[in-house]
Amino acid sequence: MELSKRIQNQIESLPHRPGVYLMRDVDETVIYIGKTVDLRNRVRSYLHASAQEHPKTRALMAEVDDLEFIVTDSELEALILEANLIKTHRPRYNVRFKDDKRYPYIKVTSSDPYPKVIITRRIEQDGSRYFGPYTSSAAVHETLDLLRKSFPYLTCNREMTGDDERACLYYEIKRCLGPCIGAATRARYRRMIEGLVRFLEGRGEQVMAELEEQMQAAAEGWDFEQAASLRDQLRAVQSIVRQQKVVSVAGADQDVIAFAREEDDACVQVFFIRGGKLLGREYFVLEGAEQEDDRQVMGAFLKQFYEEAAYVPPEVLLPEQIDEALIIEQWLKQKRGNRVSLQVPRRGKKRELVKMAAENAAETLTALRVQWQADAHKQEQALAELEQLLDLPKTPARIECYDISTILGAETTGSMVVFVQGVPRKSHYRRFNIRGVEGQDDYASMREVLERRFRRWRIARSEEMLGSRDIKGWGKLPDLLIVDGGKGQLSVATEVLESYDLLEAVPVVALAKRRDELFLPGRSNPMALPRRSEGLFLVQRVRDEAHRFAVRHHRGRRRKVGLASELESVPGIGPARRKALLRAFGSVEAVRAATLDELDAVPGLPRSVAEAIKSTL
C-alpha cells in the first residue's frame, strides 16, 4: 500500500513511547484508534506486507489521510485514554458497541438526607451509588417497579419536614413510607434505602434477616402498625429472592462473559453474579467485529464495558485468554481498588457458567437476526411502495435527505443523511457549515448545500476515472433525493440538479413538515402517501434523522461560538489560548468553575491571564 510522503514522514517521526494513535480520513473523521507501548513500532507495523494481507488493515490504510498521537506515561494510561477516545469518536474500524447512546443505570442519591432512586444515563462523582449498565430502559423501569414494592422510596420533590398535613396517594397504597407527614423518621427511611442498596448488591439474605429483626423489635415494642409494614416488605423481598438462581455455593461476586458470532454480527452476553446468585444478565451487540479474531473482540469489549460499568467484581470469567489480560487486570484493579482476576475456567461450575453465557449469547443473536430480517422485509416493502407511488425508474436503494437548521438566523448549518436499503449509512452522513449566505435564508442555504454536494460528485467521478476509489460515497448518486420543506425548497433542488445535468437521473421530492405531504416536480398539488404505509414511515424516519443530525451539529457550533465570544472578551485571550482552554476544560462553565491554580496549569496561559479569567468570568 503506497502512502503519501507526508504520512510516511509522520510515522517515522513517532516516538518510541507508550501512547494512543488516531487515524483520520480526508474529512478529518477519526476512523481508527489504537494504543501501544511503542508508538513508532506499532504504527510502522501497518506497513509490513503481512499486515497488508489482512483485508481490514488494507481497507483502513487506503483511507488514512492523517495521523495524530498522544504520548502517555504508561501503557495503563494509554489503555484508559484509548477507551475514552473510542467512546467519544466511535471510529468505524474499531470494535465498538452497536448503539452509540448511553446505557441506563439505577442511581441511589445516597448523599441526600432522604435519598431517591432514579434512572440516569450518566455516572458522576457525586457520592451516589450506581448500578448497571442496563441495555433496556424498559428493564430498568420493570426492576424499579418491583423494588418499590419491597422498598417504598420517595419519588416526589417535597421538602421532608414531617409536618405536612396530608401524604400523597403513594403513601396510601404503601409505595411510600410517608416521611413528609412524619410517618417514618429519617433514620428509618435511610435504613430502608440501605436495604435497597444491599439488595441491589446481591445481599438479599442479609436484607431479609435485618427486616425480620426489625419486625420482631417493632412487635415487641407494641408498634404493630410498623411491624405489619415491615412484614409486608419482608414478604416482597422474599418473593424476589426466591426467583434468583443460586449458581455459586462459594457466594462469589463474578461477571461471566461470553459471545457469539454469525457472519459480521457479534453479541456479547454478561451474567452478573453477586453473592453467588445470578442477579441479572445483559447483552451487547458489537460493530466492527468482522475479520477480527475472538481475542481482539473480547479485549475490545472488556475495555469499553468496564469503562462504563458501575461495579467491577473480583472475578471475571471468560471463554478464552485475551492478548491484553495483564494490563486490563491492572486497570480493573485500579477501578475496583482491589485485585481483579480474569479467569478462563477449564472445568467445573465456572466452566458451566461460561458455557451457559455463550449459549445465551447465541440464542440472543439468533433472535436479533430474526428481528433484523423482519425489519429488512419491512424496509423492502417500504422501498417497493415508494418506487410505485412516486413512479420512480427503479427501487430507491440509496436515499439522501437534506435539512437546514438555524436559530434566529445565527450559525446556519445543513445536514445530509443517507439511507441504503432503508437503513442509515452513517459513514456517508455529511455536515455543512453555511459560508456564502448572510442572515437567515433557507432557500439560499439549501442551494449552497446541494451545490457543494454535487460538486463533490463531479470531482469524485473524475477521480474515479483516474483510478481513485470513491471511499466516502460522494460519487454515488441518490435514487431518491428528499429536501425538507415545500415548493420553494423543491424548486431550489430541481434548479441545482438541472445545473449539473442530473434532473433526469435523480428523482427529487420535498417533504412538507405540517402534513407529511410530498411535493413533486411538475405537480401543483402535494401528494399524500397512505397514512399507514411503510413507504410513509420510511420517509418520515429519513426526514427526522436529517433534522436530528442537523440540529445536533448546529447546537455544537453554537456552544463553540458562545465559548469563543465569552472567553475572548477576557483581556489576553485570543484564538490560541481559547483553544487551549477548550481542550483543557471543554466548556465555559468548566472554565468559570476552575480554580486559579487549575487555570494557571493550562499550557501557554500566564498567571496574569488566569487571574483576568477569574475576575472577568
Kindly describe this structure.
It is a single chain. 46% of the residues lie in helices and 18% in strands. It is α+β, with helices and mostly antiparallel strands. It folds into five domains: 5-94, GIY-YIG endonuclease; 105-243, no CATH class; 254-366, Nucleotidyltransferase, domain 5; 398-556, UvrC, RNAse H endonuclease domain (Nucleotidyltransferase, domain 5, 2-Layer Sandwich), CATH 3.30.420; 568-616, DNA polymerase, domain 1 (Orthogonal Bundle). The strands form four sheets. Strands 4, 8, 9, 10, 11, 12 and 13 form a seven-stranded mixed β-sheet that branches. Strands 14, 15, 16, 17, 18, 19 and 20 form a seven-stranded mixed β-sheet that branches. The chain is globular and about 90 Å long. It starts with a helix and ends with a helix. The model has no long low-confidence stretch (mean pLDDT 83).
In a few lines, what is going on in this structure?
The protein has 20 helices and 20 strands. With 617 residues, the protein is an alpha+beta fold.
